[in-house]
Amino acid sequence: MAEAATPTATPGAMAAVATPTATPEVMAAAATPTTTQEAMVAVATPTVTQGVIAVIATPTATPGVMAAATTPTTTQGAMATQPSTSTAVPTGNNAMVASATPTLTPGAIAAAATPMATPGAMAAAATPATTPGAIAVVATPTVTPGAMAAAATPMATPGAMAAQPSTSTVATTGNNGDQLRTRHNRKNNLILQELVDMSECTKRDILHTLFPRDPKELYKAFNKKRKQIKKLRSQGKLKPKTYFQILPSDKKEVNSDELDTTAMDDIFKNICPEIDPPLNGWESTPDDTDVKQGAHLRSLSVDRNNTQHRFYIRDDEFNVIYNRMKRRLKALGRTEKDFEDLLPPVRYGYTKPVSTFRGREKVLKEISDKVDQNEDLKLVIHAVAGTGKSEIVRRYYELNGDKFEQNILWIKADTEDSLNSSFIDIGEQLRLEVKDQNGHYKGINSIVDGVYRYLNDVQMLFVFDDVTDQRMLMKYLPSFKKQTVLITSQKSEWIQPDFVSIRLEPFDEAESKKMIREKSTKSLSEAQLNEVTQLIQGHPLSLQQFVAAINRTRLDVADFVQYFKAETGKTFEMPLFKTPYAHSAVAAIKINIERLIFEDDESQLAVKLLKRLCYIESEEVSMSVVKIICRDFDELGIDSALFLLPELSLVNIRNLSRETIVSIHSMIRETVLVINNENEEEQLVTCLTNFLQEIEVEKERISADHADFGKIFILHFIKLIQSQTESKQFQKILVDEIGQINQLMTVRGRNQVIINVCQNVLKLSNFSDHDQAFLTVNTILACAYQSKGEHDIAIHLHEETLSKMKTVFGVQHIDTLSSMDNLAIAYKEKGDYNQAIKLHEETLSKRKTVLGVNHINTLGSMNNLANAYQEKGDYNQAIKLHETTLSKMKTVLGVHHIDTLASMNNLANAYQEKGDYNQAIKLHETTLSKRKTVLGVNHIDTLLSMNNLANAYTENGDYNQAIKIHEETLSKRITVLGVHHIKTLASMNNLANAYQEKGDYNQAIKLHEETLSKRKTVLGVDHIDTLASMNNLANTYQEKGDYNQAIKMHEETLSKRKTVLGVHHIKTLASMNNLANAYTENGDYNQAIKMYEETLSKRKTVLGVHHIKTLASMNNLANTYRKKGDYITSTRLFEEALMKIKTSVSNDHPSVEMIRRNRDRSRMLLLSNNS
């Protein structure tokens, strides 16, 4: 994967290609490719090499700076994924790619320089694991998700991305074989935690034998000892936290429930002379023979500290601790009965049904019958919104919990993010190892698997609430039989017989009347009940809201019913729900909200909080996020609002293991957004501003490039910034922050979010064509499409920007030249190298004239031109230009400047692609050494160099050294960037490739599968990097000899690439080539020939007849004819390929020698056959 370093354009200038402060480098990430590139393999080793993925970073331009595509001398390298044959195709040298998360300040133009790694190198004849003579397709590197490369900014040199050691990523992610890590021993820990909780209750009871229980009286008791307590604090005998807990400065009461164990221990030790101290003192661990009251208390604290943070406790150790704690607790007054049923039921996410729940006996019986009749049941309860699906399931559990030993997992399933978050919560609640040794969350598949392994013999009710996508749900369902799964959904069509379904109907008239009579504090006549139930039509949410409204009204019943009827009539004119009963729900919700608006200040604050919850478009919001969006409220204001809103049934509040969750029904949310537009702009702007302030706070804690940055709030922020509001102030803030938004989304591979935000801004902001902000946003939009692989759209947008630049600034303005360079890089990434070279040469010529031959932007253009030649396969010309660029940079910037080092890295990559591995390794080692000195051992650019060096070792056949460096790089990236960062995943991919090249296919498959799983979770199933992982995994199966599995995966990858990228995209053609290779190795020569011919024809059209990939297809086709026994055709094709490749690369290029050997062998077979 080509990885570009993060360039920063110099202030005030348009970051020209050469402007960058960090030169890019390409990292050959063996397996990260998205399109498969190909290496030419020797006759004896034909098949696919694995894909190369160029990960390009998004440039960061300083305010007002236009990150020029050519500004590249600053960004660091793209990561080229290395091919699966022994040559790592460095694909991504390149234009100076802007940093992966450019923060463009307003008006800055993000250069398009997100170069893609150059397509495949030709693998040497000896390339292992491929069939004779085939040119193995290596995945063409692609831009890292969402990264916006400044076309010229980059200078990315190819290189491999270092991966973390397989031990740390794989062993920790899967099941550890450690005998201690059994379900039984986890239960040991849970039982001891119950004893710890019992210990705290016991200590609290003992405390209240000495002090009053009433909070105010308890405060008075401590206050009488104030002088003694202050002295103890000054002597260091009383911890400051304890001091402020028992003598608070802001209130005159102490609630003992808020005193933790440490505080109670401090109190017993220092201010309770009635407690007999342990024989050996309070600081020592009491001997088992010590029966003093203080010894019992101290021993319980010691055991608490020894067990609290442990996941696994052996039986022998458990028995010792359990018996000791039980003996101590009984000595302090506990009875034998207290120790029965210590293991509590497993519960997650469940809250009791609302107090207004009534009726539904028939449906409840139907659910119960189906559960009783099926020991392995997936039951779907489906109905329209607001019908009470979730409440019925809650009620069913309340009545039948004993069937499941009171165990229940209630999982919010409306989005994949909700499912992931729930399973992480569950894993933590069960005290499973959901994090790896570096403290980062494991892949979600590993966490889900761990949860179900723990629960596989537990009688459990699994509830998946509000499912929106059955396919998404499937991987989260229990992996074992004989379990009851209840699913709520608005979807009515479910696959049979895997799922049984029940359609939930509204309440009938009798049930509706019964609920109103029982829950309303007002008495309605039969006529009034008839009128209301006619309006509500049995809709549970409408009933709930009506009851909440009538209970708080000051009108008499008759007037309120008429008012409710009138409000229901008005809702027919609103653009809301189409179901007939929805109108009464909207009317009741509207009445409840308007009552709050016209009450006191606290009520109005509650409305503001409700609206903000609605703006972030999430049905469930953590309390942490509530505090972020309401950071302009004080704590008391938030508390008051969250007291009022549940009273009116407008929100629900529930507690999870980690924190409190505030949930709001989708119908209430949509209603609020329609009926209450007052101060909408102000509230939206405040929400956005509060999030941006939180982002600044978060930056002080963790790097914005880290995958865990903003983890608790980023998904809500993403929803907010895509709001369709026409607020000019809101859109202006987005424009001002577009660079930062681009950076945050790039790290997460959220290209579509960037596209949505840019499109909204362009649509709603009414920019003129001459507006600098328009040009900035349009460029970022182009780069987002480019990163997504939609090159035609990107080119169109870049051409539009360039045209406007010429009109606004003139053809030789530095910003215009940067825009031209961006366009050149877009053509290069599309694979139109001739057009890219033409534009790069024009940009370079103009920059020499306007800026001078030694200007940093001019050198950036030279670097980008070198990259284009390199991707075209003209390595001699590329090396010549890279050497000139490096020489000038040493003179202009100095030998240790980061841009000079990036240029050195790019030169190393060019030698690597040419096949001169010794020279490449020498240059990579020099670059790495200097970067360690200049930037430090953990800097992201240093890690890029490590990755590139590892790839070079892989291509040179030194697999052990490559694996060692990849493992170190992966480990460091996990620490620096996070386990789910796109560069970390690229390292994992590269490590897998190194194992593959070594021939350790099982380890390679394990790592590729883990990478694929994580990419699906982080980037999505159709992301170009995800498809690259799928391609790489298929290649590994192919090399292992499992051709059926390889063909199956190659076909799936090809199908997805056709849909996502188009049938003529270079990565789609690479997939076609790889599939053809798999057919060849499986002996299906006719099918292989058919596909090779189609690939060859399309490559001639897209890339040209002399392109190295086109000739790779010709070589592979010839090889398949040779295997089929048609030596005449194979010899002719080999001779044609050899003649053409000599015009494309130098005679000493490894591919020339390989095709020559292939041709000679084919000739020999032809002569032998004729004789």
From TrEMBL:
PROSITE patterns xrefs: TPR (PS50005)
Swiss-Prot/TrEMBL keywords: Repeat, TPR repeat
Transmembrane domains' residue ranges: none
Gene3D superfamilies on file: P-loop containing nucleotide triphosphate hydrolases (3.40.50.300), Tetratricopeptide repeat domain (1.25.40.10)
TPR repeat residue intervals: 1069-1102
Chain residue ranges for the region called Disordered: 159-181
GO MF term set: ADP binding
Biased composition (Polar residues): 164-179
Coiled-coil spans in chain: none
InterPro entries for this protein: HEPN_DZIP3, NB-ARC, P-loop_NTPase, TPR-like_helical_dom_sf, TPR_rpt
Residue span, NB-ARC domain: 361-492
Residues covered by the DZIP3-like HEPN domain: 215-342
Domain of life: Eukaryota
Protein's UniProt name: Nephrocystin-3
Species this protein is from: Clytia hemisphaerica
